[in-house]
Amino acid sequence: MAFAFALTQTLFSLLLLLPIYSTVAQTNGAITLGASLSATDNSSWFSPSGDFAFGFRQLSNTDLFLLSIWCAKIPDKTIVWYANETLAPRGSQVNLTADNGLVLTSPQGQQLWNSSSLNVASGVMNDTGNFVLKDSNSNEVLWSSFNNPTDTILPTQTMENEGSLFSRQSETNFSKGRFQVRFLDGNLVLNTINLPSTYANNPPYYIGDNNNSSPGIQLALNESGYMYIVRENKQRFVLGEGVVNSETDYYYRATLDFDGVFTLYSHPKTSIGSWTVVWSVPENICTDIFLENGGIGACGFNSICTLKDSRPTCKCPPGYSLIDPNDQYSSCKADFIQGCEEDKLSSTKDIYSVEELTYTDWPTSDYLRLEPFTEVDCRNSCLQDCTCAVAIFTENKTCWKKKLPLSNGRFDGKFSGKSFIKVRKSTISIPGSYFPNPNNTPDREKKNQDGLIIPGSVLLGFSVFVNFILIGAFCYGFFFIYQKKRNKINRGSSVLDINLHCFTYKELQDATNGFMEELGKGAFGIVYKGAIQMGSNIPVAVKKLYNFAQDSDKEFKAELNIIGKTHHKNLVRLIGFCEEGQQRLLVYEFLSNGTLADFLFGDVRPNWKQRIQIAFGIARGLLYLHEECSTQIIHCDIKPQNILLDKYYEARISDFGLAKLLMMGQSHTNTAIRGTKGYVAPEWFRNMPVTAKVDVYSFGVMLLEIICCRRSVDMASGREETAILTDWAYDCFREGTLDALVEHDMEALEDREELERFVMIAIWCIQEDPSLRPTMRKAMQMLEGVVDVPVPPSPSPFTTTTSL
Questions:
Q1: Which of 64, 334, 425, 792 sits CB 3.0–4.6 Å from 87 for a disulfide?
Q2: In 3-state terms, what secondary structure has residue 464?
Q3: Per 3-state DSSP, what percentage of the chain is helix, strand, and coil (rounded to 5)?
């Protein structure tokens, strides 16, 4: 009896659990009407084999999700389709409906996207990676992801005439990019497009065979990884190279990557391995994408495209910087104002110099051809022409003058000409403003000069006595103004040599509302948020320094002169200062995205590319301080708390120079972490000469923090072997366990070669022997991949090796 009762209970329990098991253990890929997924959990609709999944994928460092299809069994979960560029906030839902098919709605019920399908009976997630919606009557396919591709084609997927793929804007930005692949008139063609429109620039890059009399009617990728064009006569024209891998053991995909290269990839179906390039086109996108009639090329305007490992890299020429610092493929802007009217404002004619670039060409943007011409005349002609930005001199004694914006810039080893790019000399500045004052016109000046005639005539008409009285009053007034000016200069003598504003203490007290809102504090003072009126309401950060001895005034003013003359996009700009009695205050520009420490050590790990761009920015700023400004500045306090981020997350070094000023006499007692390797270089403890290499050491520590998104010292983890980041990083490098070092950050591990290079650079920078550390210039070259990075030794001073 007891056995029967137990059996009944067991069967009853199984019946209750059956609906749950049937939902989880979906095996046929079928989706019924009314089914839904939410952008809050990890639920997905899987294909029968589990190879592909349909659902929401959360984007890195955001609370946004992408409705997409991805490869479910490989570690990086590669996305192969997504619902256009529609981003869904957390809590959004996708529902399968009869009237509209797939419907994506926001948490508020607003429709974000739908598949626009009528009379839908069911959906199916196939093992091919194709999600289809079927008709309620004939079981006909009404809509499929294969017929609405984004940037990828999968095996068994075909593309008919006029079909197209669009690239993403970047690896992590799924907005429509500027590259397009179309199957057009029997050929595969690659274009750039003029966003935000869909206008395709001509001529396109052709991938096909125009010599065959039978036109192509379809593009296909088969399960063995062969991509080919099917012709009317049933013949096939195979694109790219053959594939020797077994179709049962590998995944394949053909993707128009965000950098414009159309690539066929393979990936072993085991979880071990990564996507490998089978073939890609074009061979050299920098030179093969050539636009005769304007439009953007492989890189943005005013940029230079260089091929590296079959992929394009884009860099700005000297004197130019990225419009969007987070996107190396964006256009570049001049870091100076150039124009005929602007040049007139300069008091000197010699305001430009030219930088010579080898193997660099901008084949379009010509406005004038000079022939025959000499190289010297070509340079000088551009220097003296206010509309000329670049001059190209070729072997046939032709000078091509080009104007902004420059397009199709490329590094080409076969180019034998010379490029001369015009940049403004850093020591020359236009008085007042780079922009002409609309009120300061010639007519206005003439009117002012004419106005002097009347009082002059009156003076001449007065008696000698009256003139004497007027001259005396004038002299007295001049003397009064001179004395007032002299007193002001004595009160703030630092303003003699620098273009900084001297504030009164009362002005800064009012600007900060009585020093009410504290932004942070450090070893030298407290920083307050404020706003000052300088033509407009400008947000500022006011640092109120702690009191220090009067004999420091001379050094303070000398350092202030040096800092005031620095100007670099990776340095926080010093706007002004105050020195009244014992009060010492510094006024900096306010940067909205806080410190690098807040950015790195928060709850959400920032994406890899953004972190690397920040590292580049810090390196550029330190290189400027060490080698490129008029007087070498050793920062002496490089750490994440002293790196600020602007609205574009561009890194800006703050507090430069002041650490040396205030801490020089007591550095051996004011280290960041006593007895461990923190940000402070070992020579501070050993009475060794302090050089720029102390900043290199601190940069190396911080580079490891950027790579790993963790603090240099973490005693709270409870793991002694990982507590000191510099020691652990070398151990991981030596043992080949970088996965553990970055906590299996898939974005960082996607380019393991780059990750390893950055770790090696950091280890070189933290060598305890200063002579082994690279200079910031060499560190910058290693970061950029311009020079090779040798295998670093142990940072321990007991290891001897060849100096860099």
A1: 64
A2: helix
A3: 30, 30, 45
Q: How far apart are CA 780 and CA 619, in angstroms?
A: 6
178 or 498, higher pLDDT: 178
Structural element, H or E, at residue 465: helix 464-491
As a whole number of angstroms, the distance between CA 797 and CA 804 comes to 15
Extract the tokens encoding 146: 């294969």
Round to whole Å and give the CA distance between 99 and 115.
10
Asked whether 284 and 307 are in contact (CB, 8 A), the reply is yes
Give yes or no for a cis peptide into 372 (omega within 30° of 0). Answer: yes
Q: Reduce the DSSP state of residue 770 to 3 states and report it.
A: helix
Whether the Cβ atoms of residue 516 and residue 528 lie closer than 8 Å to each other: yes
Render pLDDT for 416-425 as a digit per residue (tens, 0 to 9): 899 999 998 8
pLDDT tier at 305, thresholds 50, 70, 90: very high
Q: To the nearest whole percent, how much of the chain has pLDDT over 90?
A: 35
Q: What is the spatial distance between Cα 492 and Cα 501, in angstroms, rounded to a whole number?
A: 10
The Cα 245–Cα 276 span in angstroms is: 12
- Please say whether the beta carbons of 154 and 221 come within 8 A: yes
Cβ neighbours of residue 111 closer than 8 Å, sequence gap 6 or more: 103, 104, 105
Which entry of 259, 637, 646, 769 is annotated as an active-site residue?
637
Residue 506 backbone dihedrals phi, psi, to 5 degrees: -65, -40
Q: State the Cα–Cα distance between residues 732 and 249, nearest whole angstrom.
A: 32
- Rounded to whole angstroms, the Cα distance separating 426 from 140 reads 69
User: How many Å apart are CA 147 and CA 159, to the nearest integer?
Assistant: 8
Contact 59, 172 (CB under 8 A): yes
Cα(first)–Cα(last) distance of the chain, in Å?
Answer: 86
- CA–CA gap between residue 742 and residue 747 (Å, rounded): 10
* Segments of 536-573 assigned E as strands: 537-545
Give the number of residues written for the chain.
Answer: 804
> H or E element: which one contains 380?
helix 375-383
pLDDT tens across 458-474, in order? 333 444 444 445 455 55
Among 692, 670, 694, 667, CA closest to 681: 694
Task: Give the closest residue to 297 by CA, choosing from 280, 281, 314, 310.
Answer: 314
* Rounded-to-integer distance, Cα 275 and Cα 265, Å: 6
Whether residue 637 lies in the annotated active site? yes
93-97/399-402 β-pairing: unpaired
* Tokens 């004595």, residue located: 490
